[in-house]
Write a structure and sequence with these properties.
By secondary structure, the chain is an all-alpha fold. It is built from 5 helices and no strands.
Length: 119
């Protein structure tokens, strides 16, 4: 059983804008929120939610495997920017992994796509 190759174009500019935008809004929110140890994880949660929303917006009008690939690109871009800005600590690496998953989930969930559509 072979999988046919599929050409999908991922919009690089929109992906970078969504990934960087999610992290910059996250950093701005961290400056606005009091930097108390209890409230610090909220900034990571904001970045994860904004990444999912950004992936959803960037993938609007796309179909098939391009949706998942673009969501993966948005999540990865947001995760890399977050690691570069926030450092490479254990919690930052865990949040980066969750951010990548959130990018794919934000792009795919609720579209009625089946695994066959994504291959």
């Amino acid at each position: 059983m072979t999988t046919p190759s599929v050409i999908s174009r991922v919009p690089v500019g929109a992906v970078l804008l969504a990934g960087v935008g999610a992290q910059l809004v996250d950093d701005a929110a961290f400056l606005v929120l009091p930097p108390v140890a209890v409230l610090a994880p909220l900034s990571g949660l904001i970045a994860i939610i904004l990444t999912a929303v950004g992936a959803r917006i960037v993938t609007r009008g796309r179909t098939g495997a391009t949706v998942a690939r673009t969501g993966l690109a948005v999540g990865a871009a947001s995760a890399v920017i977050g690691l570069l800005v926030g450092g490479f600590g254990l919690v930052a690496i865990l949040l980066a992994g969750i951010t990548v998953v959130a990018g794919v989930a934000g792009a795919v969930v609720g579209r009625g796509l089946t695994p066959k559509d994504l291959s």
